[in-house]
## 1
Amino acid sequence: MVILHGSDLQVGKPYRPWAAQAFVALARALRPDLVVVAGDLTQRAKPREYRIARTLLEALAPLPVVVTPGNHDVPLYRAWERILAPYRNWRRHLGPALDTVTRVPGATVVALNSSAPRRAVVGGRLDATQLAFAGKAFGGAPGGDLRIVVTHHHFVRPPDGLGGRPLPGAGALLRAFEGMGVDVILGGHVHQTHLGTSRALVEGVGPGIPLVACGTTASSRGRGAETGENSLNVVRIDDGTVRVESRRLGKQGSFVPVGERVFAR
């Protein structure tokens, strides 16, 4: 299973169209089994931004694509819209469902909307209803399927402390996902590549779930060691390992490998 994992396109003022085109070009060359965009497709959740993001996603066809909302995909300054109809533009341009199940040969992918426009604005939340949704999806998955979770917000803070507060109750959430047999969790939000495992918060036997946070794929808002940089991940999963190849946008205009980490399953 090969997954092309991007996040934080942020169509709007920070958007870099050339980085987005490099993302599409890599998808066409790599032909992964799945493309994941882990939130913040827009900067201010405006219709024009969503139209551009939709065009970008359509350029990935016929590859299967999984997306999930981020905190920038709901209005920030349009307060009444954020309270009364925060996902209006998302639903109009990207589809009605906020929590989704996608099945591709060999994998069941559950994307959970971690944005919380009425409670956290920038930070995120996952609730018991969403855990039940994931549990039902994985419970009905074909035997032997990989189990993949996609959220925008992070579970563990990067070492430099940037990226804001992790999801509240992250330890309990990860214990629940371990109980579901989840193989990997893909996310974004922190604007830099951050790789870890659920063992950072949950004691247990075995290596834990790989937590793979993507950096900023197509905007100028990279942080930490990736300040001013654009990045993505190529995730390869086999019977024994989850192999994460980190890539950054090079001067030649393509995403080139800069490092790799291998997790035992």
## 2
Amino acid sequence: MRKLLRITTVSGSLSGLLKGQLRFLNQYYEVVGVASDTGSLKEVEKREGIRVINLPMERSINLQKDLVSLMGMIKIIRREKPFIVHANTPKGSLLAMIASWWCRVPIRIYTVTGLRFETAFGNFRRLLVMMEKITCACATKVIPEGEGVKNTLIKNRITKKPLRKILNGNINGIDTTYFDPALYTENDKRLLQNELHIGKTDFVFIHVGRLVKDKGINELVAAFSKLKTDRNQSIDKDVSTFNLSSPIPKLILVGRLEQELDPLNSETLEKMRNDADIISVGYQDDVRPYFAISDVLAFPSYREGFPNVVMQAGAMGLPSIVTDINGCNEIIIEGKNGIIIPPKNKEALSEAMKYMIEHPTERRKMAEAARPLIASRYEQQAVWNALLEEYRSLESAWEKRKSTKEKNTINE
């Protein structure tokens, strides 16, 4: 059985992004997971039934530490002798592709998810572009997670290699038997609503993801505050700019605050602390209960590859408000299962949130369409099967090239 190394920068990505996929692939390859252990590597080992290796890596750029990580990666690859190295997430992929190229691993796959340079400027952007070019150059196969990522790679001349997404896009698909609103009873939902002080008639927006600038949290909090202000002013002045019978809006934020990496502004932090209608619950291993008590996903991210959160929300029967960026504009069809707005636009976001509250019939139609659309395009098992087929195709092509080379050598 050939050996496959699956590599991400941190163990949280190995655990969350590739959940179930590693166990599936382990039926056909000897799968070894490599990542910097942030606390979940042993969980991956146990859950997926694979061997794991801890390799300290920094998500941010740190030349000295990155060189140490690269040497460690080369050492691991020399020892393990994999036939395939498949990496995703920026830093882990850069190190994995350089190391596996250096060690002449036959098949080196880079799945391109979010592209950090899209929201960077100046010299930092040029540095990030160069890193992407190096990663792609060292890979034998580059897989864009979606059409948007593919077009961005082409537009910025990152690589000339053939680019084709797996199936309809996304790295792992969605398990619709796991993300299923039918799993939660009205009593289950009521208990969580009581815990979070959410009333039966409140209208709940939810955001799932890291609480950082690039996820659009500054705009989300500002838009939510404007939504509340407009409603309160309408009540005070008895004017019709807002439907006075509309439910009270709430905002649930599920995710870690990461001020050291991509800080939020002070005004946003103050509103998050002081507004009782903004409910921060931190990182959650299981986000499904929070989707179950919500009405709409608000996901105003600046950049994505192919966001799992939008698919998860859809599978849970939620319409989404997303920005017009890679991945989001592939999952969401305007007016069908959600609303698409321009990025970094708090006014457009607030108007979309207001629309969802004041047009219940249209919102219900979007909610009814959300789950079937996800199930028909991104079912997890289909994505896994397509990935396995890609591996086998790459192996066959390698074996054919090897055979041709050996024949030519004999003829010489």
## 3
Amino acid sequence: MLSVPKQLEILKRGTVTIHSEKELADKLARGKPLRIKLGVDPTSPDIHLGHAVGLRKLRQFQELGHHIVLIIGDFTALIGDPSGRSSTRPALMYDQVMANADTYTEQAFLVLDKSKTEVVFNGSWFKEMNFLDVIKLNSRVTLNQMMQREDFKNRFGQCHEIRLHEIQYPIMQGWDSVVVRADVEIGGSDQLFNILVGRDLQKEEGMEPQVCMTLPLLEGLDGVKKMSKSLGNYVGLTDEPKEMFGKLMSIADEMMAKYYLLVLGETMDAAMHPMEAKKQLAAKCVAVYHGEAAAKECRDDWDLRFSKRDLAHAELPEVTLPERKDVLGVVLHAFTTLESPISGGDARRLIQQGSIQLNGEKLNDPKAEPAWNAGDVLKLDPVSKRPIGRRGE
């Protein structure tokens, strides 16, 4: 293993909190592999780059010689993590959770070394508990503690309901740490409360408490809200290469440094031109999940479409001209045709800010009716999460 200072230098990179760094240093100083825990709830079938932030930190621990325990929350997923939620999550059926778990584990190994990863399901211990066991576990945590959570506190203050089963979630996550004897637990910055519950339960069991390591939440392609499939602002690990490349080319310039750090584990070269930096980010990300050849093909295709303006040789989707011939009507129709519908307000904003082009010329007036001709190229802003030129007919 590397020296403790060197390991700390690597592991601290990109973290929000480490509680505590001294405890982590002491654990590392023993020279033995630590048990590093990450729990994931398979509430959907796909993993996106936001999920991969934690997986990449696990991979760093893995490469430093530590033991990874990936907990698939088949039972916690039935509750749904209330962290950051202003309302109760919709309930999932167990069969749906287990179907999602199959793809979760498969996709997790796009980042993790499968041969060095222990995968466990928390249902394997929770399903063995009887009601008396549940009562005893609940007796270890007070309602006062639960109400210190910002999300519960806010919901209570705003007279929004808090279902009793939601209060079980931090307790269950904490008990996971006891069962797997975690030395370190990794989670998003919204997971700190849950991870601290794990520390408390470990102490009660006479165990050395785990170190809490939290990571930043990755904003989605909109640059505002946390990456989420339900919000449509995500980049999936199994997205097709060109789709992944195009989505990443749509992120705002001010988000690139964070994406470099959290998605690639690199520091962006501040001297690099923003467009080149974005192309490198997109290409490197595609290379991680699809290989170098796919990354090169995506970049070459992008340059052909947009940088070199050689659109005559690019394969562009075609759309027919709708009855409504004004710019706003055609733009809305084009987005809908490509199954990326947007609101009239968003379309109008894109037009007025100069993000829509016809044969290289900006269309700034939503009410204008230019002469639309077959073979024209309509370039849309990548609000659809995939920047594409379109031929009008």
## 4
Amino acid sequence: MNGICLKYPILGLLLLLPLAAHAAEAPVPNLEARIAAFEAQRQGAGPDARSRAIMEKAARDLAAALPDPGLAVGSRAPGFTLPDAHGQPIRLADLLEQGPVIVTFYRGAWCPYCNLQLKSLRESLPHLEAYGAHLVAISPQTPDRSRAQVEKDDYPFHVLSDLDDSVMKAYKLYFELPVEVRDLYKGNFDLDIEAYNGAGRHGLPVPGTFVLDRQGIVRAAFADTDYRKRMEPQAILDALDAMQ
């Protein structure tokens, strides 16, 4: 093929065009619509009144405790080195040397809203990579939990574990799950956070996403204590495009 490209340079260019065209033509997922469809399917299967009251109080308390979660646009993102799903250390500084980085924090493999977001980001990868960007997803869960998630859902991006909660705290997203919510999760939903995060660890991040330029400056950010709200893939692409 190299000989053909050298002899017929226009033909060589045409042979490369389908790859770029495929990325450009693939639709960008609408995460809000995907979440709305998920919630419509679950309608009528929500928690009972007592459980709902506990969760609503916890949501109000969290919103009051973290009225403006996450890093501000224009700030410098703290560096980190975290293990991936296979225990290999990944440094933010190394990724920034290669291009922009999207850092997204999620609660864990047990969270259906997080899984919808990660699926949408996976489908958006051709668009992100067209800007030379890397995607990093961080949760407090242990690497073995992340490895099972990566293998099950076929995530080709970095899935990292914040095992001492330091990165979630540095990005101003960390909170402790209240005891009454932990008990509710265990008793009503058969969900033990410690089984994902490790013994004695009940911390979670407010879901947040940050688009970093190559200098590590936050160029776009989204974080909301309402875990049902996430940054749209199109908003990430708009931020990357504005950096060109």
